[in-house]
Design a protein that fits this description.
Helix 1 packs across helix 5 and helix 2 packs parallel to helix 3. The chain starts with a strand and ends with a helix. It is an alpha/beta fold. The protein has ten helices and twelve strands. It has a five-stranded parallel beta sheet, sandwiched between helices. The protein has three domains: 140 residues, Rossmann fold (3-Layer(aba) Sandwich); 101 residues, Beta-Lactamase (2-Layer Sandwich); 46 residues, no CATH class. The radius of gyration is 35 Å and the shape is elongated.
Length: 297
């Protein structure tokens, strides 16, 4: 059901309009001759669209439109009036009206046109609402993500970072916006990043490990997955980067490498024979001393 608020200072017009519009079973029409009363109705009831005359004694249509936009910012608003000079139409559209339709001597034809505009406006309005809700949901997901989210434009300038990304590098959001992606890396990594960014223009995606420089000068290891962004025409418009702090993992790998190197040295320099087996008694490793002890070629 589409709920319509119809405002006109001529009761006869309202009566005809309500009758003709409600021939469509989708429409339910409330009418009033007062713009002030219409504002009161909008504050207490839910409507999908507003239809209004342009010239009214209590409050003109533009003033009424401005008041409606203040409280119900995006609700479809249609001017349906006999005042249709070019300046009036331009003024109405510039003030935020969605449609402007001129009355004529044949109400049936005009109200059929009005019905089509109502449905068009409501479809567009509901689409915008769903889009806004979807954007809000995905923004919340991005802002709460455990990974850093980093958007750069076609010139490799930062256009968006989520809270995790700013936390990772110790910057405020304003401190990162507008800066080149490569400015948060050392010179060598920056050059590599610029080369990768150029490849991304060809719609190539991948993951790379880099050192990023925090605001305090310390460095973190990061795994950065990047994907090209294109517009509807397929033109490159930037990159989306998902950034994971792998500093802890890198330190663990370095300690493991060091431990393995030490153990390897001890194994080969030990005067005793060393043999290591797994739980299935499969040989994992043996040093040269042990092999010589067994006289194994």
């Amino acid at each position: 059901m589409i709920h319509i608020l119809y405002v006109d200072d001529e009761p006869a017009i309202l009566e005809i309009g309500k009758l003709l519009l409600e021939e469509d079973p989708e429409f339910q029409v409330d009418t009033t001759i007062s713009a002030c009363e219409a504002l009161s109705l909008l504050s207490t009831r839910s409507y999908d669209v507003v239809i209004s005359d342009y010239l009214m004694p209590e409050m003109d249509g533009i003033t009424f439109l401005n008041q409606v936009r203040t409280g119900n910012q995006n609700i479809p608003f249609i001017f349906f009036t006999g005042q249709a000079t070019q300046s009036v139409v331009i003024n109405a559209i510039n003030s935020g009206a969605d449609f402007f339709l001129e009355k004529d001597q044949n109400p049936s034809n005009r109200f059929l046109d009005l019905s089509q505009l109502i449905k068009l406006g409501v479809r567009r309005y509901h689409t915008e609402i769903r889009l806004a809700e979807s954007e809000k949901k995905y923004r919340q997901i991005i802002e709460l993500a455990a990974e850093g989210v980093w958007l750069i434009d076609a010139d490799a300038k930062t256009t968006f970072v989520n809270p995790r990304m700013t936390e990772m590098l110790g910057y405020s959001e304003d401190g990162m916006l507008g800066r080149p992606f490569s400015s948060f890396m050392d010179e060598k990594s920056g050059i590599i990043t610029e080369q990768i960014t150029e490849k991304r223009r060809k719609d190539f995606s991948g993951k790379h490990d880099f050192e990023l420089i925090r605001k305090d000068g310390t460095r973190i290891h990061a795994s950065i997955g990047v994907s090209s962004l294109t517009n509807e025409d397929g033109q490159y418009i930037g990159l989306l980067a998902l950034v994971a702090d792998i500093t802890g993992r890198k330190k663990t790998e370095q300690r493991l490498q060091f431990t393995n190197a030490v153990l390897s040295t001890l194994k080969e320099t030990a005067v005793e024979g060393i043999l290591a087996v797994d739980e299935s008694d499969e040989v994992i490793t043996a040093n040269q001393r042990f092999i010589r002890m067994l006289n194994v070629p």
